[in-house]
# Entry
Amino acid sequence: MRRQNASASNHHRAGILLQAAVIAALCLGICACSGQNEPQSSGHATDMVFIPAGEFLMGSDGPDAPADEQPAHIVDVPAFYIDRFEVTNEQYRRFVIETGHAPPRSADPREASFNWTGSDYPAGTGDHPAVLVSWHDAAAYAAWAGKRLPTEAEWEKAARSGMAGQKFPYGDRLELSQANFHKSYLRTNKLRPVGAFEPTALGLYDMAGNVWEWCHDWYRADYYRSGAAVNPQGPVNGDYKVFRGGSWMNDEPFLRCAQRGKNSPDHKSPAVGFRCVRPDGQRDTRGGSED
# Structure
């Protein structure tokens, strides 16, 4: 009986993966031909990628999968647009100047090179991701830009680029040309300009590496076992906010699509930044003026 149950379970999982693969293929096909639905590019401000509504396989399973990524489960997400690039220092500076929001700074002497002087970012870093930003800072910028932070489900769906079950946004392997991550003596370990590495199949940059990206959701380790199957928003409260994608300081395993990072919403780091999303059909209230 135990053998029969295991066989049935395997067939069920295979069926879910096949369904997810078919859905993902359709999703990728729609994305590839959705140019007429995308905002017209005018620099980074309106440079967003359309992610169509539909289901995908979120999380991971297997003996090596972290407990907070289990179980892999089908999630249905409404259509949305996501920034093609991580928010840059130059974009964030315009937000700081217009709103009077406190500029990025850290009291840690090890992070002094990332500190801003007034409303000026460190010289030569205008096209670098904005870092030393807390979750609150990122959410405030997103609201100012007429957008919001992505949910975990939105972020992971975009990162998977229409592929079901792969480890990284590019497949099951990660090449040095595809992401900025710690690779010991093979490459100097430092933060890079946005868009310096290869795009994903959907045209998104730095979904793996460069900086972790804040998400909307509160973190709970067991959320995947009880969360909503349609447009999940995360727990209603918690101690930590989620960030995704890994950073220039991390080794390759931390850049997996399913990897969940977390920290206090007040946390600031030179390894954490963000990008924004906008639901399909929502008007760009700023008209791209932030860029």
Notes: The radius of gyration is 19 Å. Confidence is low (pLDDT under 50) at residues 1-45, 287-291. The chain has four helices and nine strands.
